[in-house]
Amino acid sequence: MTDHDRIPHAPLAGVLGWPVAHSRSPRLHRHWLHRYQIDGDYVPLPVAPENLEQVLRALPRMGFAGANVTIPHKEAVLKIADIVTDRASLIGAANTLIFRDDGKIHADNTDGYGFVTNLTQSAPHWHPESGAAAVIGAGGAARAVVASLLEAGVPELRISNRTKLRAEQIKAEFGAKIVVYDWAQAGNMLEGATTVVNATSMGMTGKPPLRVPLDALNRDALVTDLVYTPLITDFLKEAEQRGCEIVDGLGMLLHQAAPGFERWFGQRPEVDDALRDAVL
Ligand code: ATR
Description:
10 helices, six-stranded mixed beta sheet, 34% helix, six-stranded parallel beta sheet, alpha/beta
């Protein structure tokens, strides 16, 4: 791409999805743009899968500095991007794209960063290395959680999923610290775990409830849920009743957005209560 191809105006970013109307990312990034008085915009970009590559190649020429990617494009962008970070390729999905000045598309995955940063900010006493982690679910979001928990130093990572093969695939790719539990035994993996995560969509408004029994849950476990509608899920409520510290999933959404915003708009944004209120 030459300099003439870049349109000199306020930087733009957006979120590519299909559908994308439900995305909270525009509200989130616009809150930051307003707060830091940056002359730019962040827009929803509804793009059908068959048009993804063409749109991605065109966006830099329209003044876009980058984009977020959501369902169903998070895996497909890896094949289109020119540069894929190690963590995005390990996770098998990207959520943040940077359009470089040389025309290359750089793909990264900040979901795991958002997950761990949410825990360290919300629960400063949390020590991932203090005990086993138990992850319920083995989908795309779970893969980002697994990658980030291993990087944070958990000594053992237990995982259980309705479709066991997906959990076994994670073990095959992420290594010896992973222990796979049968779905019927998911409750057993909570015993002695100090970090417990629901990484399925169960418990979300309109979806079936999460039925994993919490009897084996330790009082000193930190329990978190990636579901944030409702903000406090039944899973979190029950964990709290059992004396556990809980962290809701909204913070992960907020924190995963920060690295992209910084790259596109040149300002490291802060995740605080005003942002939470704006997004809720
Ligand atoms: P995401 O990107 O949000 O992780 P996903 O890859 O579709 O989305 O994964 C959804 C997760 O929720 C999976 O772990 C899925 O289990 P399967 O792999 O067996 O599909 C889990 N999930 C969704 N609905 C479920 C249900 N009713 N019972 C059990 N697990 C469910």
